[in-house]
Specification:
Layout lengths: L1 H4 L5 H26 L4 H4 L13 E6 L5 E6 L5 E6 L3 E6 L4 E7 L7 E4 L5 E5 L4 E6 L12 H6 L2 E5 L4 E6 L5 E6 L3 E6 L5 E6 L5 E6 L7 E6 L4 E5 L4 E6 L6 E6 L5 E6 L4 E5 L4 E6 L8 E6 L5 E6 L4 E5 L4 E6 L6 E6 L6 E5 L3 E5 L1
Antiparallel strand pairs: 1-28, 2-3, 3-4, 4-5, 6-7, 7-8, 8-9, 10-11, 11-12, 12-13, 14-15, 15-16, 16-17, 18-19, 19-20, 20-21, 22-23, 23-24, 24-25, 26-27, 27-28
């Protein structure tokens, strides 16, 4: 009789039970991982010699934008830089002579992202128009100054369209595919020639603000960071997130794979940078100081991977010793927040872009 009166669990009760079980398993997994966390990276690195870092000197100031510079990217030729701005323009610069080679008008203001193709023959840009537009940089435009923008604008084509603003874009190791991220909380891989969506990556719970590709020899892997305080590592072939790191206390605003490919650095509005080891599946270093209270907007590695550069909202950029977690250099000069830091492909120069409408080249 008792069996006849037993009440079957409702779907809500079953779901609640499964959630409790999942939480208990996560806690047990974290306890097992903590048992292996016997020493910190900075403690191991104390036996190493401190970095003898020469002072970076300001070599060029690139003036031409009329508003906040939001993004910048070096050309593979190590000489040219493309920048995007709130003024609705993208500019191709000659970093050696500090001159503008091309100025291209975009459909809307707040051009939040720009990227050079691996061949150096085209640039991609987009922002609040929800689209990513590709502009070929043919020989007829080279060195044509402002007048050369007309040809590039006429030959432009829209490659990607998001349902919200486009926050970041990268060419996926060739001129044929483009990886983008948007405010709808998703990343996407596009075919440049046809504009066809090849793969969608959806796991973030809020806006995706940044992304970076692993070196080509490391496989089809990229990392994204978002306003959900998480950095996710993705397999581009399956479209699935294979690792997640959520140690930050605020929005993740910058992500960059270590040159060796087995770890990644993140920057956040919580004013610190963190290093995550993909093999250990955990945070192994934290780069912060008590007197640094402003958010990080961008991060970049040195060619060797020993130094981590970060741009801050207190108008400075810093270089950190990645192993000893010590700050070794502070770059001052900008008059507003540093929105982007980018190292030249050969590692000989650092470009910083700022809301003060300028870019600065340090070497």
């Amino acid at each position: 009789m008792a069996a006849d009166t037993a009440v079957a669990p409702t779907p809500e009760d079953t779901l609640e039970s499964l959630l409790r079980e999942a939480e208990a398993l996560k806690q047990k997994l974290e306890e097992e991982r903590q048992k292996l966390n016997d020493v910190t990276l900075s403690c191991v690195a104390e036996r190493l010699e401190p970095v003898t870092f020469p002072n970076l000197k300001l070599r060029r100031v690139l003036k031409g934008h009329q508003s906040k510079v939001l993004c910048a990217d070096w050309s593979p030729d190590k000489r040219h830089i493309v920048s995007s701005s709130q003024d609705g323009k993208i500019i191709v610069w000659d970093a050696f002579t500090a001159t503008k080679e091309q100025t291209i008008s975009m459909p809307s203001t707040w051009v939040m992202a720009c990227a050079y193709a691996p061949s150096g023959n085209m640039v991609a840009a987009g922002g609040l128009d929800n689209k990513v537009t590709v502009f070929p940089l043919g020989p007829e435009e080279e060195g044509a100054g402002g007048g050369g923008a007309g040809g590039a604008a006429l030959r432009k084509r829209t490659v990607a369209t998001h349902t919200s603003y486009m926050s970041c874009c990268r060419f996926a190791h060739s001129d044929r595919q483009l990886l983008t991220a948007g405010g709808e909380g998703a990343c996407a891989l596009w075919d440049v020639e046809s504009g066809q969506l090849l793969q969608s990556f959806q796991a973030h719970a809020a806006d995706v603000t940044c992304l970076d590709l692993a070196a080509s020899e490391m496989g089809d892997t990229f990392v994204s960071g978002g306003c959900d305080r998480a950095a996710l590592v993705w397999d581009m072939r399956s479209g699935a997130a294979v690792q997640a790191f959520d140690a930050h206390d605020s929005d993740v605003t910058g992500v960059r794979f270590h040159p060796a490919g087995d770890s990644l650095a993140t920057g956040s509005d919580d004013s610190c940078c963190r290093l995550f080891d993909l093999r250990a599946d955990r945070e192994v270093a934290r780069y912060a100081k008590d007197n640094v209270i402003f958010g990080v907007n961008s991060v970049a590695w040195s060619v060797s991977g020993r130094l981590l550069f970060a741009g801050y909202s207190d108008y400075t950029a810093c270089a950190w010793d990645a192993l000893r977690a010590a700050r070794v250099c502070v770059l001052c000069g900008h008059e507003h927040r540093v929105s982007c830091v980018q190292l030249a492909p050969d590692g000989t120069a650092l470009a910083t872009a700022s809301w003060d409408s300028t870019l600065r080249i340090w070497a």
